[in-house]
Design goal:
Layout (H helix, E strand, L loop, with lengths): L10 E4 L5 H11 L6 H8 L5 E10 L2 E13 L2 E9 L8 H15 L4 E7 L3 H9 L3 E10 L4 E8 L3
Parallel strand pairs: 4-5
Antiparallel strand pairs: 1-2, 2-3, 3-4, 5-7, 6-7
The structure holds coenzyme A.
């Protein structure tokens, strides 16, 4: 059982190349095998399909990126590929706001189902996705490395 702090209002925008330095810091703080800069750049070349978002908070002198989400909307389906929130800003509803924005964008593009994979031990992420109606539909054996672990496939339909 986790105790949430108050939701911190953020603004969610499409990710730009200039956002990558801050996004890469959050990525490396969030994953044992972080996406590289090239992998994020690859998302920018998937124009029309990729929905890459950053969440910004305005704290005094300037804005700061505190979370990001990378997804694809293709063939009527939303695929969530990556999401991370800066460790200092977790449990403040930031991933929720990113997810709400990508669901909104996917519905605008008339997607009817959402899919993602999550490490079997990642209770935080699975809890987040369950809050938004994603249900486990299958398991991919040894999908992840370092450490090797199964992926749980989750689906939300309708979106
Ligand atoms: C998973 C992650 C993105 C969640 O971000 P967040 O901004 O802290 O999430 P939110 O505050 O929006 O949480 C929404 C819900 O998710 C669930 N949740 C989030 N963190 C949780 C935790 N540590 N333990 C259990 N449930 C958790 C809760 O149900 C929460 O709702 P509640 O606050 O009303 O209880 C963040 O923990 C993270 O960056 N983790 C490392 C990267 C990662 O694992 N990404 C997912 C890969 S599939």
């Amino acid at each position: 059982m986790t105790m949430s702090k108050t939701r911190l209002a953020v603004t969610c925008h499409s990710m730009g190349r200039e956002d990558l330095p801050e996004v890469l810091v959050i990525e490396s703080l969030s994953f044992a095998e972080p996406w590289t800069e090239e992998m994020f750049l690859g998302e920018f070349s998937s124009e029309g399909i990729a929905e890459s978002l950053v969440a910004r908070v305005d704290e005094g002198p300037g804005e700061r990126i505190v979370g990001f989400l990378c997804a694809w909307v293709v063939g009527g389906e939303l695929h969530i590929n990556n999401i991370g929130v800066h460790p200092s800003y977790r449990l403040r509803g930031i991933a929720s706001q990113l997810l709400e924005e990508v669901l909104r964008r996917a519905r605008v593009k008339e997607a009817t189902a959402g899919y993602l994979e999550v490490r079997a031990s990642n209770e935080a992420a699975a809890g987040l996705y369950r809050c938004y109606g994603f249900q486990p539909i299958g398991r991919r054996r040894n999908y992840y490395d370092h450490p090797q672990e199964d992926a749980i496939v989750m689906r939300k339909t309708p979106l």
